[in-house]
Design a protein that fits this description.
single chain; alpha/beta; TIM Barrel; 6-stranded parallel β-sheet; 3-stranded parallel β-sheet; 14 helices; 12% strand; globular; binds 5'-deoxyadenosine; binds FE2/S2 (inorganic) cluster
């Protein structure tokens, strides 16, 4: 039966909610293997053996928000706060460009220092220095006007994980001041403004059920994001979720395969969180259908401070080392890290 669902998904890129749920609940080693082989074949048809890299620059861990799972939440008084100056951000980008990065991801907490003026100025300057690069922002919820302005300044893409497609589940992961409705509104607006948009969720977040995940998958099927970030939830010692178990490698990889089949050309990272719960996590993610890796370009001095979860990897390595390390890791499994912007490819008339 589950084999039938997998074949249906591979052919039609769509299942019903209850079929998605069944795909999760009834999975076993055999079905995972079949799913993986379809996912890898589909990815190979579109992207060959290429793996895209994004240079991640963690520009600030100051956040006005208080997500219950996140190590840089406002309530965490143990977190040593920092923000990079625009000059520091430019030198990360300079170094990254030399290392072959053609996409920079500026990620940070919801820090009011990065007003439209300041963040827009940073985007403009990086685009002026490197017109052949794409800029991705991952700076949380902002107003439509702000998203519009940053787009005018040259931002190409925006990552804003939806976190969960179930409003009730959303409210258990976030403070009262945040709402699922607003998160969805942000995603819609980003799309309307012409960004390439990334959504995503954590696997194994507290209270998550198979039904929730089925909704996440349906949302991805309907929204058709250009990018989708999924990684295991990992507890952080200074958060209310410190005693909850981390998400599983096996389920995360399984879902990477499912998402590849739902939306064949999607840009799908093998995340740092996946590399944190298993020494070969990112390799296993790529071998399940992911096609993007995001080595860290932040100054080594701040990396340890940008801890969304415990034991994050790559906090001691220089940017060049991280880049080298990932290239080698990919080569060892038969893939190649390529130097290009790495936009989502067109595929069979699929709507975005
Ligand atoms: N474990 C795993 N992922 C996390 N994120 C935040 N906190 C954690 C955690 N404890 C993810 C969220 C957020 C992204 C930037 O990092 O999904 O959107
Ligand atoms: Fe950062 Fe391996 S990717 S050290």
């Amino acid at each position: 039966m589950i084999e039938g669902l997998i074949r249906k998904l591979a052919e039609s890129h769509s299942l019903t909610l209850s079929e998605y749920e069944s795909l999760i609940v009834n999975r076993d080693e055999g079905s995972a293997k079949l799913l993986r082989s379809f996912a890898v074949k589909t990815r190979r048809e579109i992207y060959g053996n290429d793996v895209y890299v994004r240079g991640l620059i963690e520009i600030s861990n100051i956040c006005r928000n208080d997500c219950l799972y996140c190590g840089i939440r406002r309530s965490n008084t143990n977190c040593e706060r920092y923000r990079l100056t625009p000059e520091e951000i430019f030198s990360c980008a300079d170094e990254g460009y030399e290392l072959g990065f053609r996409t920079f991801v500026l990620q940070g907490g919801e820090d009011s220092f990065f007003s439209d003026e300041v963040l827009g100025g940073v985007v403009r300057e990086i685009k002026a220095r490197y017109p052949d690069c794409a800029i991705t922002l991952s700076m949380g919820e902002r107003s439509r006007e702000s998203y519009a302005y940053l787009r005018e300044c040259g931002a190409d893409r925006y990552l804003l994980r939806h976190e969960t497609a179930d409003p009730e589940h959303y409210s258990r992961l976030h403070p009262e001041a945040m709402s699922w409705q607003n998160r969805m509104k942000c995603l819609r607006e980003l799309r309307e403004l012409g960004y390439a948009v990334g959504c995503g969720f954590m696997v194994g977040s507290p209270f998550q059920t198979a039904e929730h995940i089925a909704k996440d998958l349906k949302f991805i099927e309907e929204f058709h994001p250009e990018m989708c970030g999924i990684g295991p939830f990992i507890p952080h010692k200074d958060t209310p979720f410190k005693d909850y178990p981390a998400g599983k490698l096996e389920l995360t990889c399984y879902l990477l395969s499912v998402i590849r089949l739902i939306h064949p050309p999607v840009l799908l990272p093998a995340t740092t969180a996946l590399g944190t719960i298993d020494p070969l996590g990112r390799e296993k993610g790529i071998m399940s259908g992911a096609n993007v890796v995001m080595p860290n370009l932040s100054p080594v001095g701040v990396r340890k401070k940008y801890e969304l979860y415990d034991n994050k990897i790559c906090t001691g390595e220089e940017s060049a080392q991280c880049r080298e390390c990932l290239s080698n890791r990919m080569r060892q499994i038969g893939y190649e890290v390529v130097t290009c912007r790495g936009d989502m490819k067109n595929y069979g008339g699929v709507r975005n």
